[in-house]
Every structure is written in structure tokens, then in C-alpha cells.
Design goal:
By secondary structure, the chain is α+β, with helices and mostly antiparallel strands. It folds into two domains: about 60 residues, no CATH class; about 90 residues. The chain is built from seven helices and four strands; from the N terminus they run ββααααβαβαα. A two-stranded parallel ribbon has the order 1-4. Strands 2-3 form a two-stranded antiparallel ribbon. The chain is globular. This is Haloacid dehalogenase.
Length: about 160
């Protein structure tokens, strides 16, 4: 069986990493509000921020095709939060505030037992291993769904 596959993809969350997030927690929304404030976007309170975020998510995903593996694209929503307050809505700033929300919502983040040992042993094997955060994007790209074969470019799955 060795050598049959050139690359093996692992979904990070729930496979290699034991993670728990609370996206509805006040801590997560406060972390986002503080990060937005640092970038020049001021929201009165977490409720106002949640409402604007929900509008931005709908707007960002309104024209996207919904498939079996659909996941909303949140980065444009974070940019929209910045734009709504006339702040610098660069991709870098959007990623920065998104990361603040992710950190603020994460209550548990641990490697599963054996994950580190496994990843070290895979480096010596012929197949390349790649850990991906949003594995469903690989399905959307057609690489794992319905048995189709397609070369995956970095831009297909790591945006």
C-alpha cells in the first residue's frame, strides 16, 4: 500500500486537535470589538456588533453557490465590519480581527494524544501529509467528493 497516495490531508480540528470554541460568548465578541477598535472601527456594544456581523455574513455569502459541503466565508464579513466604520478594510486587518475573535472564542485547544508523534513519523514516509483547517473546501474543489481526481493548488484551499 505504500506509495499509493502522494499526499494525505488531515482536518486539524477534531482529528489532530481537540478544540472547543464558544462563538456566542461575550468574551469572543468583546475580543472582536476591542480588535476592531484598535483598527479604527468602533461599535457601541457587543449586540450592535453581532447584528452588523450577521448582516455582513449574509451579504458576503448571498451570491455563493450552496453545495452539500457549503461553509460560509467569514473573511469578507470581517472586512465589512471595518468598512461599515470607515476603517482600513485591508485583508491583513480583516485577518487580524478575525484571529482576535477566534482567540477570544477558544476555550480548549489541545493536541489529541499521539498527534504529535504521528505527525513526526509521517515526515519520514513517502506520502506528504498536509493539515488543513477547512477540509470541506477540498470537497468543494472536487478533490475528495464523488471520486474525482484533481490537482489541488494552495490557492484552492488555504485562502
Amino acid at each position: 500500500m505504500a506509495g499509493k497516495y502522494s499526499t494525505v490531508f488531515f482536518d486539524l480540528y477534531g482529528t489532530l486537535i481537540d478544540i472547543h470554541t464558544e462563538e456566542n460568548s461575550e468574551a469572543a465578541w468583546t475580543a472582536l470589538r476591542v480588535a476592531l477598535y484598535r483598527e479604527g472601527a468602533q461599535y457601541q456594544d457587543n449586540e450592535q456588533l453581532r447584528e452588523q456581523f450577521n448582516r455582513e455574513v449574509v451579504r458576503a455569502n448571498a451570491t455563493r453557490t450552496r453545495t452539500e459541503w457549503f461553509e460560509p466565508d467569514f473573511l469578507p464579513a470581517y472586512r465589512g465590519l471595518l468598512q461599515a466604520c470607515w476603517a482600513d478594510d485591508s485583508i491583513e486587518n480583516a485577518r487580524k480581527v478575525a484571529w482576535a475573535f477566534r482567540r477570544g472564542s477558544t476555550t480548549k485547544f489541545n493536541l489529541f494524544p499521539g498527534a504529535l508523534d504521528f505527525s513526526r513519523t509521517q515526515g519520514a514516509r513517502p506520502a506528504r501529509c498536509a493539515a488543513v483547517e477547512r477540509a470541506s473546501l477540498l470537497h468543494e474543489a472536487g478533490t475528495a467528493a464523488r471520486g474525482t481526481r484533481r490537482r489541488v493548488r494552495r490557492s484552492d484551499s488555504f485562502q
